[in-house]
């Protein structure tokens, strides 16, 4: 009963994280259209969140001594890496294509678990990933405007790899032998990410006066500072906090598939708030993503090393290999997405 309640809570947190992350684009687009450079918006997002989490970082300053590698990895991959690679990729390939490639991360997480950690995965988990990725292809309408740009595709794949780092590192911090408060990891990850993005975005060249005006949201003027507040507090602070906690309650591969809902949520919010209407294939694709996420989250991680990483008792047959992994503790000890 306790395990079931913990998993339900983890699923709820993962959905809250997907909703919070999904709302970032809807709030950021009016700011970009008002004249702010996309990288400046990203810097404001991360730097503002880092400022909010500064008291938390001070409270957990012992982490600098205990887990410096984890903090640096989270800041470089989960914060700065995902953002920088994604924005660089959309400068060369369509946004929908870049988003789809980035959300190949759940499949890459399964690859990490299966081939790096040498732990079997269930057919249910693999099926959930396939359905989610296929549904995403419909949501973002990957077939429209695709032009082959090798560098752009590689940059988007870099964002996907950094997304894998987010899920794996979020889970790694919950290691029972040396547990780490997820709030401390997020706080220092944001601080490190802000420092890295400062070099990339060069905010000293930004037109700060734009933040004092209004931004147009589908014909309605909204204060720029209000949109920025949403991006910082909801789409970043709340999104990362609920995301990392959900990873520790579920598992990296399950939370990764649930995170695919971010694209669906972003598309629906854009429809409602920005007037960007959904086509029939997008609605169908969204439903497929939901089905894939449900199938994946219904696969419960097992404590015994002989059991599949993501599978219920009725789904113990692995996709490949039966193998034996003798890990110190299951990947999802107490677990929890970019």
Number of helices: 15
Q: How are the strands of the biggest sheet laid out side by side?
A: 1-2
H/E topology pattern: HHHHHHHHHHHEEHHHH
Mean pLDDT: 76
Percent of sequence in beta strands: under 5%
Low-confidence stretches: 300-338
Largest sheet: 2 strands, antiparallel
Structural classification: mainly alpha
Helix share, percent: 55-70%
**How far is the N terminus from the C terminus?**
30 Å
Shape: globular
Please explain how this structure is put together.
This protein is an all-alpha fold. The protein is built from 15 helices and 2 strands. It has a two-stranded antiparallel ribbon. A hairpin with a 2-residue loop joins strand 1 (214-217) and strand 2. Helix 1 (2-22) packs across helix 14 (261-274), helix 3 crosses helix 12 (224-249) and helix 13 (252-258) packs antiparallel against helix 15 (280-297). The chain is globular, with a radius of gyration of 19 Å. Mean pLDDT is 76; it is low at 300-338.
Which descriptors would you attach to this protein?
338 residues, 66% helix, single chain, mainly alpha, two-stranded antiparallel ribbon, 15 helices, 2% strand
Q: Nutshell version of this structure?
A:
It contains 15 helices and two strands. It is an all-alpha fold and 338 residues long. Helix 3 packs antiparallel against helix 6.
Present the secondary structure layout.
Blueprint: H1 2-22, H2 24-33, H3 38-52, H4 54-59, H5 63-66, H6 68-89, H7 95-102, H8 105-116, H9 123-139, H10 150-172, H11 182-201, E1 214-217, E2 220-223, H12 224-249, H13 252-258, H14 261-274, H15 280-297
Antiparallel strand pairs: 1-2
